[in-house]
Design goal:
The protein is α/β, with parallel strands linked by helices. It is 40% helix and 13% strand. Helix 5 packs across helix 6. The relative contact order is 0.20.
Length: 288
């Protein structure tokens, strides 16, 4: 009924590596506030977490399933000779298949889409049907870190390369109110060194131990997202509730910060929803 009358609430989740774990806590806070989520979309880590929302996993199921996949199972642990990427991508694919099985996107209880970047056409691809695990694998294929997905002659990588906050895609697909989580809004890559060439190995190790320089994973992930954020201001204006959790103290690949990230997202969302509850009641379909 909410979908038909335009009183639905859509949720869009952005990419951001391990910082995306904050979105698990945010989803919990939205549910506790009585906000009924009717459709979901996202890119990269946001697409993976959004799939759990579309499957109507409970808060505990989401917390346990993603902790296993991203912390215990070490999805980026299968390093290889970096001719295509730093990892083989086999472990990521296996974990996605374990979590989501053979489901088609059209079989999910809630309407759902995920985005990938088609390097062959230079266009954003929106996936609304097909094997869920397969298109999630494309959506999270960070260039240089995880191998691209090659399918029917075309090459697909992380959706964040072109659009890290696909609120425009959701706006075109679904009328009604929209909530969005923008991880990239508080994202930055900083360093405390001055150099133009790689120093000797001993100095690299010393700098890394002191946290003075970004690593290759951080550089590749950030490089893949920065262009997409140029249009984020316009995309943020499309939403009724914009959530921008503080994530600067969480590394892009800091999987061990999982519990801290989830709790940080939850506490942040509780504060924001609490301060905006009256205005949200007028804009969004709240369950009283």
């Amino acid at each position: 009924a909410r979908l038909l009358t335009g009183r639905s609430l859509s949720l869009v989740l952005s990419g951001g590596g391990a910082r995306g774990f904050t979105q698990i806590g945010i989803v919990r806070a939205l549910r506790e506030a009585g906000l009924e989520i009717d459709c979901v979309g996202g890119t990269s880590i946001g697409a993976i977490i959004g799939a759990g929302v579309a499957l109507e996993w409970s808060d505990q199921e989401m917390f346990d399933n993603y902790r296993y996949s991203f912390v215990s199972a070490r999805p980026l642990g299968d390093y290889t000779l970096p001719l295509v990427a730093l990892t083989r991508g086999k472990r990521v694919s296996r974990l996605l298949r374990e979590q989501f099985g053979a489901r088609d996107i059209t079989d999910l209880p809630l309407p759902y889409f995920c985005c990938s970047s088609n390097l062959s056409s230079g266009q954003l691809e929106t996936h609304r049907h097909g094997p869920l695990w397969f298109w999630l694998r494309a959506s999270c294929a960070i260039p240089g870190v995880i191998p691209p997905v090659c399918h029917h002659g075309e090459v697909y990588v992380d959706g964040a390369v072109i659009n890290n906050l696909p609120t425009d895609v959701m706006h075109a697909l679904q009328p009604g109110a929209m909530a969005a989580v923008d991880i990239g809004a508080d994202d930055s890559l900083r360093t405390r060194i001055e150099e133009y060439a790689t120093p000797p190995f001993w100095k690299l190790v010393f700098d890394f131990r002191r946290g003075l320089r970004p690593g290759i994973f951080d550089i590749l992930i950030r490089s893949g997202m920065v262009n997409a954020e140029l249009a984020s201001a316009e995309r943020r204006r499309l939403v009724s509730l914009l959530l921008e959790p503080p994530v600067r103290d969480i590394g892009l690949l800091d999987w061990k910060a999982y519990e801290r990230a989830v709790e940080s997202g939850y506490q942040y969302a509780v504060r924001v929803i609490g301060t905006q509850r009256d205005s949200l009641h007028e804009q969004l379909p709240l369950r009283v």
